[in-house]
Amino acid sequence: MKTIEVEGLTKIYKPLPPSKTPAVTALKNISFQVEQETIYTILGPNGAGKTTLIQILAGLIPPTQGEIKIAGIPIQNQKKVSKKIGLFTSSGNGFWKFMTGWQNLEYFAALQDLVGRPAKKKISELVELFGMASYVHYEMHSYSNGMKQRLLLARALLHDPEILLLDEPISHLDPMAVREFHLLVRHELTRNLKKTILISTHQLEEAQEISDTLGFLFEGELLWEKPADSFRLNPGNLLNEYVETVERKNECFETQNR
Amino acid sequence: MNMWKRWKEKMNVLKLKIAKLWVLLISQMRLDVKAYFAFWGNYVWILFVCVIYRFLFEAALSRSTIFLSGYYISFPLFLMSGIALYRLVIYPVVAVDETILNLRRSGVMSWILVTPTSIYELFFVRSIWRSFLGITEVATVVFFAHFLVGIPIKPFFQVPVFFALIWLSLAYISVGMLISAASIWLRRGSFLCTFIQQISYAFGGVFFPIYLFPKIIGFIPLILPLSHVLNIVRYVLVHGGQTVPFSLFLPIIQMTLIYFVIGSFFLQKSLVFARQNGLLLMDLHE
């Protein structure tokens, strides 16, 4: 069953008056689907359009063109879609540093209309699941990146969404924390909690290890989609594929410009 | 039976809303209280202001009075009411604008937009909290003035004074909405808050009766809610709270309603536009 369906998605950022900068096409006619309870990773260099794609799927910005369905619901139905989606963005994580981890989770649970006993129960479950009991009552400014990452995941799961959108989830983590993060995502979230996950990253090794399907986004175009299995046997292949695709695309670009 | 069920459901939704606003309010308090403790030094100003103005008050306590529209008020009461009410202006005016600014800066905005919570709920919570802070500041200034220079405290505790303070908060929250709407377009709005605060301070009749201003700038106090509320408060301080003419309240009520309608209209339109164009996700200082 398809949980995320994207058909002909285009996003053009038009400049606001009085700015005279040209319009920027961030995504060009993208189509893909994500199966239920699988991990789909969007790869691509900086500026490829990964974050724009995540923001559109989360309903933060509207698409210029195209059709998107989240768990069968059109993206335009924002209220219903927001209940299906858990968003994780590590840049500007949005925690209040003067509050403890627990208080932050209480605040964000309230934003999800989750208060009182059900909120406390859910937060306790997540604290246990992510092993945060030893520090969740400390103020946030004392947290390491790994601790924040766990709290971000817990926050995304507060309202028990079907789908998790993870934007650059491992960008600030050391190798040990990356390993822990993989285990959490692969085993707890996908296998145990049955979540469908869409990740955007430019870290190849992690992507091929954790994902079921890989998609390569370059300058707003989805150039290929492949099962991650095909790269796992030969770890160097993904890097080669990545470099070749970028070089081919750059050559095309240069030929067109000549 | 159906009606009972529906009523029960509605009550549950209401209960949820109240519980939610309560949690958000507590969080807001936690945030602000921690932040204020971190910058506790700023609060020395209360003592500082009182010590500086002590000399003024001492001069004023030589029974000099100031003529306002049709009556005389002692200088200490005139000055104290001005300073106290100005402190109330500072908080409500930034309640809405700071909400957007903080949410954008901290990255919480991108998260709120994927929750069922509306930004207006957060404005509401922040406005209540900020208005409360403002009123505590008014009380602090009045109490310090009483203990340090013996300004009478009783005249401030009258019902019309409280009404006037509530209107003042509402008026400046509405002005804050206009500023927030502007900040979405200008992408830098905080200077507008400071500008409005300074204009209110200078032209609101805090230090001088507004009729002393030259005619060419005489219209400025008339469009500032602070000057109208000061009119009410000073009248009550002199005449007591029993017989306050409605004509004193009329300008501030009209002004607040006008500012509120215009402010909420433009804010709503700007938020919808910003939402559609991804502007809410941008940091104001990007």
Description:
Chain A has 258 residues and is α/β, with parallel strands linked by helices. Chain A has a single domain, classed as Rossmann fold. In chain A, 40% of the residues lie in helices and 26% in strands. Chain A has 9 helices and 10 strands. In chain A, the strands form 2 sheets. A 6-stranded mixed sheet of chain A has the order 6-7-8-3-9-10, sandwiched between helices. A 4-stranded antiparallel sheet of chain A has the order 2-1-4-5, with helices on one face. In chain A, a hairpin with a 2-residue loop joins strand 4 and strand 5. The radius of gyration of chain A is 19 Å and the shape is globular. In chain A, 42% of the residues are buried. The model of chain A has no long low-confidence stretch (mean pLDDT 85). Chain B has 286 residues and is mostly helical. Helix content of chain B is 75%, strand content 3%. Chain B is built from 10 helices and 2 strands; from the N terminus they run H-H-E-E-H-H-H-H-H-H-H-H. A two-stranded antiparallel sheet of chain B has the order 1-2. In chain B, strand 1 and strand 2 form a beta hairpin. Chain B is globular and about 65 Å long. The mean pLDDT of chain B is 79. The interface between A and B is medium-sized, with 36 and 30 residues.
